[in-house]
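Lecture 7 notes: from sequence to structure.

We start with a single chain of 435 residues. Read the sequence below before looking at the structure.
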Amino acid sequence: MVPTRRFWLLVAMGIPVAIVAGATGGPLLLIAYNVALVAIAWVTALMGPDPRRLAVVRTFDPVLSVRVPNKITVTIENTGAEPMQGLFRDEPPLDHQATQRETRLRVEPGRESVFQYSITPNTRGSDFFRGSFVRLDCPLGLVRKQAYLNTSQVVRVYPNVLALREFDLLKHKGKLDQIGIRKSRIKGLGTEFESLRDYAEGDDYRKIDWKATARRGKLVVRQFEQERNQPVILVVDVGRKMLADVNGVSKLDHVLDASLMLSHAAMVSGDLVGLLVYSDTVRRYVPPRKGRNQAGVIVDAIHDLTAEPLASSPQRAFSYLGRRWSRRALIVLFTEVEDEDDARNLTAGLRQALRRHLTLVVRVADPDLLRSAAGRVESEEDLFQKAASLQFVNERQKAGSLLDAGGFHSLETEPQDLAAALVSFYFQVKERSLL
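Now the structure, written as tokens:
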């Protein structure tokens, strides 16, 4: 039971009455007045609505996406025989940022009230809603009846799966360039002839069918069926170098968001996707497969990954992979190669994999570091900071050059561009039939 503003105003009104009554009868009058007021409030609370007659159902996606708003819908049904009104507040997980999780409530008997709000999880993994609170208005408006409703509910937070819906929508509309993905037409890739169609701006002149062009009197190109069932294996380093933060988020989290987008693009294109996670040893392995079920397996395998303060061994990881997968594949290695020594060691340790597979090394660039290296110098401290940043950036650039020279493809980009750059690279591989 929670007193309302009206109750406290009535309490305050008793004070002038007691003063007028004088020193002898005033205190007794005030006590009697307050006791009567409390008694009335207590009776109205007993007469008030029963919170147990509220049935609350909270709905949301089976998995939530980290660091983006996720919609939560709360349905409140009045199963009692009298109207209920008051305040309702939902209690999301502690580290989730919530918007407008409290609402004014009015529900007629047998009816429902629905409200929505959004939460933004800060970390991946499992968490839970802590329940709900309600304060229902009682007759006369002196008190509200407060109750805790046991609506606790487990929630799983994954990398940004909402971005996959945006990808599907834009792909359907042919507008993937809106999220930075440079993509050739799906038709026109591969090597197996499928059909003829009219020439369109941007088509490769080498695909023009001159005989068909002569017959039809207009340019006609051969259309090829996209090559499918090609393996793409995501190799994710979860060692100590992936603990570093970029834009307040760990490099591992940036990598997982991008890898999820790449795996989705590959599966939509009909390819097989696998996963290997390693630090000092192999942590998880998912053999390359295709289909809707495999998408769920990949997401489940990465949603609770955490970086470990251990030195990683890519040699051990690729040795493990070589014993389990021999077919040529596009291997996307998410790791950190900070200087020339790192690049030489990686190249020397993975020579066999480089001969067999098409291997892309992916690194996350730090925007703050790049800004510092390019920034103006206005003080001695700025000078030292700029010099240190330039040295670090130059070392990473040299490492990238060594990776390219050693037979790797390398990609280093800022977090916000990482997923688009990865998917663009994948489509280029498909277009050029590099697998």
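The chain has four domains: 2-47, 51-158, 191-225, 231-431. Keep this in mind for problem set 3.
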